[in-house]
Amino acid sequence: MLMQSRSARLALGLTVVALAATACSGGSTKKPGGAVGGTHGLTGTPIKIGNVVDLTGPIPGLFKAAREATEAYVEKINSSGGLGGHPVVLVTGDSQTTCNGATAAWGSVMPQVQAMVGSISGLDSCAAKALNANPKTPAVFQILNPVLSGIPNTFSPSPHPLGQSIGQYKYISDLHPGAIKKVGYIANAVTEFSYIQLIAGMKKMGGSVAYTRSTDVTKQTDFTSDIIKMRAAGVKWLTLDGLPIDTINRILNNAKQQNWRPEVITAAPAYDGNFLKLADPAAIEGVYLPLQQALFLGQDRASSVGVDEYLTWLNKVHPGAKPDIFGAQAWASMELWDEAWQAASGTKSPDDVRFALGTITKFDAKGLIAEASPTGRTPALCWVVAQIKNDQFVRVEPKDKGFSCAGGEFVPLGG
Q1: Strand 115-117 and strand 47-53: pairing?
Q2: 87 and 11, same structural domain?
Q3: At 235, phi and psi to the nearest 5?
């Protein structure tokens, strides 16, 4: 029961980590019963897939970008002749950022479809009832709660067991010897478990914590006292990797006001289409972005087919929409399901596709994400490090394109 509670906290924590900007919405063809998608005159029997995301509730529009990315991929398929002449139709649900909402939405949508694809809910553990009740229906989505990874019909494009991949942090630590001996962080009380994993990984690298405090970051707006205490504690590495972008912005502004600048600042969630507009360039200069996705805001468009296709089709279906990490994950989920459908033999039933998903041992969504094993439930070990320089996101390592696997290691929680 303790593990489930901690995992639930992790799931919600990871949702809040990158409260990426709510994207603008373009029009899409809507059909009765929540189905979405134009069929382009295709006459084959429709292939229905389900998509449940948090759209309303305490954080309205939380995973809107994931829905938009899924709709964009459906349009990509249908405008190219569908799947063997069969149009793909999206049946949607809103999990409302609550457990009851997730249980109800998954329970309503899943029995109607041949697969669940691109879904993401802050409390996705509450989808377990529907997943267990429909064991032959594959569910391909970015799993936040590791508890769901044990359900046989779930597949994640980028699995995240309990623990932390640390290759990207090793790289930054090598650039700044000794900084990891004095780590400081502020954890959201709701998302604290995500930091437990990260700090466990950093401790495996020889790190130690000089300052930490837990707070409700949705209520605290001034972190000046924390800045003063971190400076007094000699913090050299400030990790903001588990916080939403508005909190990252406030902390860095307070640090600038106090004329305090630690040697290293890492903030993966800051790789967000809205962050540069939100923040003071002087306060965010030099922040490192340790990532396991390509630079999907556009920097890697020329070198990654996956990035280019995601951005191209998102703009076609939802002009002006802002890509974010959840949208990239939903697009990768659609890519994984599409690959499995193409590889499936027989009648292309949900069983056939589920079996085909179980044969995909290497997957990177055409370079959009670092390679992982959906079948083996093993996480990505390779990484990208970017940095904010002159109010821009700049690729640091590897310098040109792709991912580095140097120092790639996954540290299991408690391992």
Answers
A1: parallel
A2: yes
A3: -60, 130
Q: Are residues 253 and 329 in the same domain?
A: no
Domain that holds residue 27: 2-158+300-357
Overall pTM > 0.90: no
Q: Is the Cα dihedral 366, 368, 374, 379 positive or negative?
A: positive
Crossing angle of helices 64-78 and 325-343, in 10° steps, is 30
| 77 and 192 fall within a common domain | no
Taking a C-beta distance cutoff of 8 angstroms, is the pair 412, 163 a contact? yes
Compute the distance between CA of residue 79 and CA of residue 68 in angstroms, rounded to an integer: 16
Per-residue pLDDT reduced to its tens digit, 130-171: 999 999 999 999 988 878 888 999 999 999 888 899 999 999
Q: Which residue has the tokens 């950022």?
A: 97
Query: CA 14 to CA 241: how far, in whole Å?
Result: 10
The 3-class SS string of 166-215 reads: CHHHHHHHHHCCCHHHCEEEEEECCCHHHHHHHHHHHHHCCCCEEEEEEE
Indicate if 38 and 123 belong to the same structural domain: yes
Examine residue 366 and state whether it is found in any structural domain, yes or no: no
* Number of domains the chain contains: 2
